[in-house]
């Protein structure tokens, strides 16, 4: 006990002397004014604060206690003091010491730290006014000048604008004293919400006062990417390009689920949670031009923005998404959803990104992350092309993959490191804070024994938050996200997020059981899962033994056959059935006549067909249109244009096998006397045996229309025609369509219906009798063929 008191006195004496000395020497150098710093964590008892922030501020305090600054720490929150203060102090007591501090000294510093901390309820304007007053008076009372105020907002994003406004109104310090406000992601949900949030914050805080944190930028390996590239530029400059790099992979694998965070996570999903920010930041650091001064925030930003502006636009086919099996149950529980609610939020994503710059053109960059995977691991790997063909001794180092791995931590290695294949070059040691690892344990990193790499690691491992907190304290902004950076990133990700909004994720079981079901492959600019899904679904639709999982359900709908599954499997099944029909027709008659509709439902089918084109008899297939809008075929509205863009342009088939509807004749659209409908009918009669298509693919609209046969159109007026001009209630009103007669002559008719928005229609249709004039789809009855309804679970079950 005596020892502790004595040490405390020594520490205090030491602090006083050092404060004076530091003050003098700092002022002499014109450095920032020393004095009192108030730290306020708003959201002080939340998860993040308890896990990382207090720890980070304790390290800051421990490092600065002898530097001439004095501190006070305020934990703020909405709860009253008597409830929250004990929780705060429990968290504070748990902070651990920096590695370079002796146990004895740490105990003293910690005791001081606890004394300097207090809880304050921060709910109302008055609470903030009282805090503001206290922050000014407290240093005065102690006879110390104020140096700065640091507010850390660890609160849900919707509260940012309000808290920032209160800080601005009541807690702004006097002239000459700095104000720094730290914000945690999420900074918005997409481009426009991020823009709105930026504008709201800008009305309370100046840009230089805001520190938007991305904790990945505080990870030691991530912050060493640019210095590593600089130090090793002699080796890297010649090979850091599309000619030498095969691909780049930026990966964050997690074993944890999203339990406990569902109210946040379900609105965000994996792309917004970690890809839009953490992994994208790593991407920019790997690919940006090296700034002359690595710590010049403006130059770093300028070079980052160049990369953002060169990123190729992403569409849904650039990504695969998945969701772990028990996620939906967690959503039901945490969001109080009824059974049968299906969240489409992805917990896994694999995305392919390209940069449209001479240096990187055509070089794939894979970004991938997922919850409930087999291991916790984060890394960025640059895989170089290896042009050596090994005839013998495949084990020798020059036959191995050439790669540089920025290993963020965890995984087999368990420590952050930069690994360079020995067949590339020996990296320079960057500075005294890094060392080369020489011990060679029997470990594999990404498939290669670590003895094949040169390995660099930091001398002392530091927590990302502690690192960034120390930078905020120093007023260094180069590792923070500026508003421009943020908006550029959202600008890039938002179109993909919107195009995936309704896409059903592949369900995966979680952990090692995922096997290879999340592996994905690159097909040109597209990404697909490498293996067909073995589907795990959350509900047992059969009503039979609970928990049973199955792929596709067969049943009856409106007295016809029905196939039902999750949309992804449904499409696979429909594509298989279509291919079987094509092969049969080609075997029997040398031709396959396929009539396709437009609309959004068949897009996924077209995509699947395009991807598996090599096994399909396209050479002998004739493609016809079920219906067409009376617009030029080159317009985006045109059904033919849709079929062309999503299917025809990707498959190899003779041009003369493609039969668009002649909606444009004599430079006008769908004019009766031009006889377009008749012309198409004649073409069908000449080429299609008995005018019986082998396969007709239909959809059904919310009003029960199919092809371009709408409720209220007098279908009997079509008589014996196979093709007719029709009217749609929606624009463009004029249409050309196969008639019921033409459709009902077909050998196989498939009606594809997908998505929750079709659930009501499917329910209604299951009840109505055949009334083709009110519900045209109910007039589909192939006279000597078959009709199959393909309905996904969303449409079937809502
Ligand atoms: C956070 C995400 O930003 O990053 C979490 O919200 C994720 O969902 C975490 O688990 C990953 O960070 P780290 O440092 O553990 O890789």
UniProtKB/TrEMBL annotation:
The keyword Signal applies. One of its GO terms (cellular component) is endoplasmic reticulum. Residues 40-222 form the Glucose-6-phosphate dehydrogenase NAD-binding domain. Keywords: Carbohydrate metabolism, Glucose metabolism, NADP, Oxidoreductase, Signal. Pathway: Carbohydrate degradation; pentose phosphate pathway. It comes from the Eukaryota. Gene3D superfamilies: 3.40.50.1360, Dihydrodipicolinate Reductase, domain 2, NAD(P)-binding Rossmann-like Domain. GO terms for biological process: glucose metabolic process; pentose-phosphate shunt, oxidative branch. PROSITE patterns: G6P_DEHYDROGENASE. One of its GO terms (molecular function) is NADP binding. Residues 228-516 form the Glucose-6-phosphate dehydrogenase C-terminal domain. Residues 567-789 form the Glucosamine/galactosamine-6-phosphate isomerase domain. Residues 1-22 form the signal peptide. This is Hexose-6-phosphate dehydrogenase (glucose 1-dehydrogenase). It comes from Esox lucius (Northern pike).
